[in-house]
Design a protein that fits this description.
The protein has a domain of about 130 residues: Aspartate Aminotransferase, domain 1 (Alpha-Beta Complex). By secondary structure, it is of the alpha/beta class. It is about 40% helix and about 15% strand. The longest helix is centred in the C-terminal third of the chain and has 20 residues. It is globular and about 75 Å long. A 7-stranded mixed beta sheet has the order 1-7-6-5-4-2-3, with helices on both faces. It has a 5-stranded mixed beta sheet with strand order 8-9-12-11-10. Bound molecules: pyridoxal-5'-phosphate. The site of pyridoxal-5'-phosphate (PLP) has 16 residues, from α5 and α6.
Length: about 400
């Protein structure tokens, strides 16, 4: 097992991103002398429990051991160790999707707690829909508050049941002060959950900033190849038996094959993030200088408070950005129709560049007025910048924007 005790020291060091790369290259590997270098895919539902005493020890939790893949599996465990290390946590649970991870984290964090789940309007659309179901069916009380009013946000944090935040937000790339949120939450023991999917642990480590839980859609940057769906939950402290109980009984666990696929993708995680960060920043800058473009949203490209927060909280801006065209919906649709190298598709974090119009896709369920209020104009385009050559991406953007 990788030494998670050293993760935060490692991450704090100035060359942490280079060392993270070395670590990623070896993820899941080294089974020991004469063992396979790449861990096997243990595609088995059940495990031999041994004699009666062994079985008793495993089921009572006295000894670790596998019984049934929904409860745990050696390949899935390797992935849990890997994401735990990357996020600098002390416990991790792997899930079948990012949404399953959000459900698992909310349930574990809110267990036995009273009060509202506090969140903000610009979280991922799927998280909104999940919260709406939890409200309607299970009576969870949710408070949605704009984090831009920082004083009000922090005041609400202090009396919440738990907090679910996403920074940078998607698609407008607004940052929320994780440390300030944690400081407001601590005195009353309010757990803070951060969706770190867009920033990734390469660029931001919410647990080091004091958050209690991190959720990730591993579908995105961690897997990076747009060929599967998955998620994970990482906790700053060790998992309790209650956390494990929630995880295995909510049922959103994974098979060995999927876990192995994500681990395989993660070997190139650091390499890919380097390229996403470089391309993301270059494309954001290039777009900002174009006459057709009204505005670009990219972490760190803002002014004042947002800029300062970026410098404090993130190492780089990642590969996701949004931009508004002056010609509104007509210009945006024309642009999407003319793209050649970039694919018109939802999702993000894969090696290939993808673009979509949030008003048509992720934010379609909102009313037009609601979208305007949330800053999602008809001409807004979200671009997941891939790892293609910067020059090829610029050429495609140029021809798609041009006459
Ligand atoms: C995609 C995404 C999710 C949900 O992940 P799935 O793997 O699609 O379930 C959650 N949060 C963010 C920020 C995402 O981008």
């Amino acid at each position: 097992m990788h030494n998670s005790g050293q993760a935060s020291d490692l991450m704090d060091s100035p060359d942490s991103q280079d060392r993270l790369q070395t670590h990623c290259v070896h993820l899941g590997g080294k089974e020991g002398r004469n063992g396979p270098y790449v861990p096997p895919i243990v595609q088995s539902t059940v495990f031999d429990l041994g004699d009666a005493a062994d079985a008793e020890a495993i089921f009572s939790g006295e000894r670790s051991g596998f019984a049934y893949t929904r409860f745990g599996n050696p390949t899935v465990e390797k992935l849990a160790e890997a994401v735990q290390w990357l996020e600098c946590g002390k416990g991790a649970m792997v899930t079948s999707s990012g949404n399953a991870a959000t459900l698992c984290a909310i349930t574990a964090a809110m267990y036995g707690r009273k009060g509202k789940l506090l969140t903000h309007p610009d979280i991922y659309g799927g998280s909104h829909e999940l919260l709406a179901i939890l409200e309607e069916v299970y009576g969870l009380s949710v408070e949605v508050l704009d984090s831009a009013n920082e004083e009000k946000w922090l005041e609400s944090v202090s009396r919440a049941g738990a907090v679910l935040l996403e920074s940078p937000s998607n698609p407008l790339m607004r940052l929320i002060d994780i440390e300030a949120t944690v400081q407001a939450a601590r005195p009353s023991g309010v757990p803070v959950i951060v969706d770190n999917t867009v920033a990734t642990p390469y660029n931001q480590r919410p647990l080091v900033l004091g958050a209690d839980w991190v959720v990730q859609s591993t579908t995105k940057y961690l897997n990076g190849h747009s060929d599967m769906v998955g998620g994970c939950v990482v906790k700053r402290e060790a998992l309790t038996s209650q956390d494990r109980r929630v995880h295995k009984n909510l049922g959103g666990t994974v098979n060995a094959m999927e876990a192995w696929m994500i681990l395989r993708g993660m070997r190139t995680f650091a390499l890919r993030m380097k390229a996403h960060n470089r391309n993301g920043a270059a494309i954001a800058q290039w777009l900002a200088a174009r006459p057709e473009v009204e505005r670009v949203y990219y972490p760190g490209s803002g002014e004042g408070r947002q800029r300062a927060l970026f410098e404090r909280q993130m190492a780089a801006g990642s590969g996701l950005l949004a931009f508004e065209l002056k010609g509104g919906k007509v210009a945006a649709e024309r642009f999407l129709d003319r793209m050649k190298l970039i694919t018109h598709a939802v999702s993000l974090g894969g090696m290939e560049s993808l673009a979509t119009r949030p008003a048509m896709s992720s934010h379609r369920g909102m009313t037009p007025e609601g979208r305007i209020e949330a800053g999602i104009s008809e001409g807004l385009i979200r671009l997941s910048v891939g790892v293609e050559s910067t020059a090829d991406l610029v050429a495609d953007l140029e021809q798609a924007l041009g006459d």
